[in-house]
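Hi W.,

Here's what went into the run:
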Amino acid sequence: MVSRIGVYVDGENLVVPIQQELDEEVVKQLQSDVLERISLKHLTGLVIDLSGTSVLDTFLARKLFDTCRMARLIGARPIISGMSAGMAISLIDLDFNPGDVETAVTLEDGLLRLRDTPKFDLIAQSDDDFDAEGDSFENLVKGSDVIDGDTEPKADDPD
Amino acid sequence: MTAIPNQKRTIQIKEEADISVAIDAVLQLAFGMGMNKVNRTMLATSVSELATNIFRYADQGYIDISFMEGEVHQGIKVIARDEGPGIADIDLAMKDGFSTTKSMGVGLPGVERMSDTFAIESKLGQGTIVTVEKFL
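Here's what came out:
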């Protein structure tokens, strides 16, 4: 009987708090659950939190980091959070290559980063908008609030 | 609960789930003797690698976990023993990046780095014994 790790949708992100010791079967199941949910719900972020687990050997670590890279392939930005000091020492001692997967201290920190990421496709509706107004990055980010606030965008339609 | 937990445990590694049993056992013993969290994690990760090696390469074997209560060093001693195919070239196996199959595992140089003492004995066709110690 394989225990299954719960995955939770938070806005546009998938949150995976791991609160148990992992083994091969659990991690394999998790991998397909995570990827399936991301593609089904069109999620754009993923945080896998390891604060509730104590041991990560190279096999499990590779599966988890692979899952992150796979998530990126289907369009979600992956973050691994909550890795303990001992885990970090062990993985590097074991010559594990963490690659370019982003990490965060806590689950909250990871989620904050994802929420703070501007959604460029919402903000700059076309290249013309971007060039014509010469908006700075900050203005663009503020602009997204206007759109989120269900108000008309201030710029006239360039067409 | 002030009773000292079992001083020694032997876990047979026969199937995948036994790896978790060995990890739990070493975490418990290490916690019981007051080893700090970082060292506990490193020791448990070593056990995980050693048990995984047994499962993958030797099919079955044993992990012995015991207290070391010497004057000089207190800590935990782990012996991973199997009667598998053995390692042909130990020097090669102790090099980073070496693995006899494509999958992960082996990780012996890493286990050595994570431990305070490390010893390996292996005879082709007879098996392998890895002994590691982690001090408090």
